[in-house]
Specification:
The protein has 402 residues and is mostly helical. It has a domain at 321-402: Serine Threonine Protein Phosphatase 5, Tetratricopeptide repeat. The chain is 57% helix and 0% strand. Helix 7 (137-143) crosses helix 9 (169-178), helix 14 (241-250) runs parallel beside helix 16 (275-283) and helix 17 (299-305) packs antiparallel against helix 18. The longest helix has 38 residues, at 23-60.
Length: 402
């Protein structure tokens, strides 16, 4: 509108045919328009404040319909503060559990979320009373991370656990990133379980929060709980590859640790079919591929069982993967390699001279019988048939002794 009016000024002020412009009419017209703009601006400001007061009254009276009507169409209110009790529309909305209204107010970024009323209460005191209102936390903390500094440590710790309990991931991440020392201090002062904060996050299926904590450099990834479980072992057991990779990258995750049932991070990574994690573990030279768990399973058996030929080959190449092992179901790495027709893996296992050929599995079949009619496995079949009965018996005896 201003652009069009400016053109209008030039047209009205133009005199004669010689192209000259009279300055006096132009100045008068410009001053008139500027005065009109100021008057309109002041009028709009008055209207915004009037609606802001109406919004405050609607929130105070728990009138969701009126409040939402005022907030419709992207209206951004001013923060009206009642001088008697220091309450605002947002404080009243939270006090009255008006979730939709409070959310819209927070999203306008026009409210001071640190405001304290005459009773010494903030919006955090109100929203913690109500499950649905607590879901406002991620919206508050995502757009107002500095608000964390104004929350008492004990209260912030309570908000953090509330966020974890109700899976308010963004809020939890925001808190752990910006108040790491506070959360660790409060947790260590209260916990008696011997379980680290990081392990608690992993055990409660909070991978994104765990990664954020690891990235702070203060998560103590080498810590073990009373069952000798590390964060890395727990991440692999709970099938959290991103967490496992973040832990391995710290260089402090202790992949050599086995828990009280002899499981390792490597065994669980293979069991849960996590090839990237497994390969990363193998390259650490601390992954202990020689360990077998309570069921006599090794990482190699699980790698073959889950049809991961690249992982199986990498394990065999370590020279410590124990291809002779037989689990409680009478399965071997060779049997599973044959079951999935993994030619290279089967040949590599035979090359070790320690693969059990004659073991009858719980299915009643041997590895040789599995591939009898599989054309692509014929060289493997012929090679296994070439072993004498004595050789096969010696392999079995060797595995029992081991």
């Amino acid at each position: 509108m201003i652009y069009d009016m400016t053109n209008y000024i030039h047209m009205k002020a133009h005199n004669g045919s010689n192209g000259t412009i009279s300055r006096l009419p132009q100045r008068k017209e410009r001053h008139r328009i500027q005065h009109q703009i100021r008057r309109n601006t002041d009028g709009r400001a008055d209207l915004i404040m009037q609606n802001s007061i109406k919004l405050y009254e609607a929130c105070r009276d728990n009138d969701t319909y009126t409040a939402m009507k005022i907030l419709a169409n992207g209206f951004i209110p001013r923060e009206y503060i009642n001088k008697g009790d220091n309450n605002t529309a947002l404080l009243w909305a939270c006090s009255n559990h008006m979730y939709d209204v409070a959310l819209k107010l927070i999203q306008t970024n026009s409210m001071n979320i640190k405001r304290i009323n005459v009773h010494g209460l903030t919006i955090f005191d109100y929203i913690m009373e109500h499950t649905r209102m607590a879901k406002l936390l991620p919206y508050i903390l995502e757009s107002n991370t500095d608000a964390i500094k104004y929350i008492e440590p004990e209260r912030l710790y309570g908000i953090f656990w509330y966020a974890l309990e109700f899976k308010l991931i963004n809020a939890a991440i925001c808190i752990i990133k910006h108040a790491t020392d506070n959360i660790i201090e409060q947790y260590n002062a209260e916990t008696t379980s011997g379980v680290s904060l990081l392990l608690t996050m992993i055990s409660n299926d909070l991978p994104d929060v765990a990664i954020a904590f690891i990235e702070t450099g203060k998560s103590e990834p080498s810590y073990t709980n009373p069952d000798n479980v590390t964060a890395l072992l727990a991440a692999c057991r709970n099938n959290m590859p991103d967490v496992a990779m973040a832990l391995i990258a710290t260089g402090e995750s202790r992949p050599d640790i086995n828990n009280n049932v002899n499981d390792t991070a490597l065994i669980w990574a293979c069991r849960n079919n996590m090839p990237d994690v497994t390969m990363a573990l193998i390259t650490t030279d601390e992954s202990r591929p020689d360990i077998n768990n309570y069921g006599n399973d090794t990482a190699l058996i699980f790698a073959c069982h889950n049809n991961m030929p690249d992982v199986a080959m990498a394990l065999i190449a370590t020279g410590e993967s124990r291809p002779e092992m037989i689990n409680i179901n009478d399965l071997t790495a060779l049997y599973m390699a044959c079951y999935y027709a993994m030619y290279d893996v089967a040949m590599a296992l035979l090359d070790t001279g320690r693969a059990n050929i004659g073991i009858v599995s719980h299915t009643g079949l041997t590895a040789t019988e599995l591939i009898k009619d599989v054309p692509e496995m014929k060289p493997v079949y012929d090679r296994m048939n070439a072993y004498s009965k004595t050789d096969i018996e010696n392999m079995t005896i060797y595995s029992i002794i081991i």
